[in-house]
Design a protein that fits this description.
With 263 residues, this protein is of the alpha/beta class. The protein has helices spanning 30-45, 67-72, 75-79, 112-118, 135-138, 146-154, 156-165, 171-177, 189-201, 205-221, 224-240, 245-262, and strands spanning 6-11, 14-19, 51-56, 101-105, 108-110, 122-126, 130-132, 169-170, 182-184. The strands form two sheets. Strands 1-2-3-4-6-9 form a six-stranded mixed β-sheet, with helices on both faces. A hairpin with a 2-residue loop joins strand 1 (6-11) and strand 2. Helix 6 packs across helix 7 (156-165). The longest helix is centred in the C-terminal third of the chain and has 18 residues, at 245-262. The two termini are 31 Å apart.
Length: 263
């Protein structure tokens, strides 16, 4: 029997959610995109949970949308709402959480995987972490807030470079650019995040959740229109350029080889 593509372990008030398709570098197929938000909502609604941690099974955090499925049918593009036709009541790949969501980036986070990381409240990176935006190389338009959240994290010019060049940046560069909060030894990644979670749990939780909600509200004051602009952009892309799975299939090997050479 195949293992669940996403696992969740609850321990001492912390929910550790792990992308669990290591053989596919935790690429996001339709099943993963259905299960992941469900587990996030379940953990966020659990009164015994105060902090969520999202990570991946080594060697990668998340390679983005599964290119095999994307090149075959494109169903995972639609399943996650990244094609501009999302019907879910939230923006991006994850539902909003009242509780802190820490991204424990254990390896490569590319394209949709980078957007998944950006959906977390803050990021802790293993020394093995790498980050790239290859939407332009795959031939799809960002639909999970990358054009809003990446410039917020690293600045507009660096974000433009990442999207135009599609090259991986290493963990040290991600720290220098402000994309991640800390870089730690690979074996210490989860213990470091659990230590942070333990500290977070000593705060007044009701007060912390109100502060987090205020951060969300303040963050929407200007960028809110940016989300609308991105959704308009991906709809234009789908209408004008169109999404052709066969083009993804043709590019897949070259994309994988280029990423492997860099990581």
């Amino acid at each position: 029997m195949a293992a669940d593509p996403v696992r969740m372990v609850l321990d001492d008030g912390v929910a550790v959610i792990t992308l669990n398709r290591p053989e596919a570098r935790n690429a996001l197929n339709s099943e993963t995109l259905r299960l992941l938000p469900t587990l996030v909502r379940k953990a966020d609604g659990d009164p015994d949970v105060d902090v969520l941690i999202l990570t991946g099974s080594d060697p990668a955090f998340c390679a983005g949308l599964d290119l095999k499925e994307l090149g075959r049918s494109g169903d995972n593009l639609r399943a996650g709402g990244a094609d501009g036709t999302a019907t879910a009541s939230w923006r991006g790949p994850l539902p909003p959480t009242d509780k802190p969501l820490i991204g424990a980036i254990n390896g490569a986070a590319a394209t949709g995987g980078l957007e998944l990381a950006l959906a977390c409240d803050f990021l802790i990176a293993s020394e093995r972490a790498r980050f790239a935006d290859t939407h332009a190389r795959v031939g799809v338009h960002p639909g999970w807030g990358l054009t809003v959240l990446l410039p917020q994290a690293v600045g507009l010019r660096r974000a433009r470079e990442m999207s135009a060049v599609g090259r991986f940046i290493d963990a040290a560069t991600a720290l220098e650019w402000g994309l991640v909060n800390h870089v730690v030894a690979h074996d210490l990644l989860l213990p470091f995040c659990l230590d942070l979670a333990s500290e977070i749990r000593t705060a007044d939780q009701d007060g912390l959740r109100l502060i987090s909600a205020t951060y969300d509200a303040v963050g929407e004051v200007a960028p809110g229109d940016g989300w609308d602009a991105e959704q308009a952009g991906v709809r234009r892309f789908m209408q004008q350029a169109g999404f052709d799975p066969s083009r993804v299939a043709e590019r897949r090997e070259a994309i994988i080889k280029r990423g492997s050479d860099q990581v």
